[in-house]
# Entry
Amino acid sequence: MKRIQWFPGHMTKALRMMEKEVSLADGIIYVLDARCPAASFNEKLRKIAGSKPVLYILNKCDLADERVDNFLKVIPNSVKVNAAIASSRKDIIGAINALVFEKRERNLAKGYSKIYRFLVVGVPNTGKSTIINLLAGSKRTVTGNKAGVTRGKQWIRLDGFELLDTPGTMPPSCENQALALHLAYVGSINDDILDWDDITLELLGELYKKYPKRLEERYGITGGTNLEMLEAVCTRRGFLLRGGDCDYERAIRAVIDDFRKGRLGRITLDGFDVVKEVFGRG
# Structure
C-alpha cells in the first residue's frame, strides 16, 4: 500500500505561528480524537507547548467505546467530551479552570487578576473549532467535517479567558503507518490524496479483528479476505453493476461513511498499550 503522508505548506506556516504565539499563552488545550488518541497526537505540538500546562480533550467520545475511560488514566490532565452537545461545555470549562487554578490563586494572592490565554491545537478534524464555538455559545470559528478547514489564527474572547484557534497540523513525517491509517479512517487526512481502495480494505480487516459482530450485523460478513469482505458489502447493499459485477466504488464510500457516522457502533481504533506508550514519553 502507498505510504500515507500529508504535510502541506500551510502547516509549516501554522507551526511557526504557534511557536510565536505560545509565548502569550498560559496553557495549551490539545484536542484529540477519542477513537484514536495516540494517532491524533503530534509530538511537534507537545514540543511547542514546552513547560506550559496542557489539557488533553478527548473529543467525539460518543463515537468511541468504553475503552476511552482507560485512556484517561494514562493521559495526564485529560477529559472526554462530545463537543456536539451543550452539556460538554461545563466539563471543558471546569478542566480549563483546573489547568490554571494554582497560577490564578497565586496571582489573586498578589492582588491582581488577568485574562488567561490558551492555544487550542491538534491534528485536523478533531473538533477544535467546534469546541471553541461550544464554549463561546455561538459560531465564532469556521468548522467543517473535513481536514484543513481552519487556516489562519483566530483569538476568541470568552468569559475569563481567551482561546486561539489554530490550524490542524500533522506531523511532518508519519513514522507509524498503522496510526496514520487510523487518521485516514477518521478523516484527519485530506481524503483527496488517499488511495481509498487499499485503505478501505485495511479498515475492514482491522474491524473484523476487533469488532467482527458489527460487520456481520451490518454487512453479513462472516470472514474471508479483505477483498471478499468488501464483496460481501456489495452483495448485502446491492452495489452491483450490469452483469452482476461488484460496484467496489460505492461499497468503499458506504463503508467509510458508515464508520465515520457511527453506523457501525462505537469503535476505538488505538489500543491501550500504544496510547500508554505515546503519552508516557517525555
Remarks:
- Strands lie at 27-33, 54-59, 78-80, 116-121, 154-157, 161-165.
- The first helix runs from residue 9 to 21.
- Residues 142-151 have pLDDT under 50 and may be disordered.
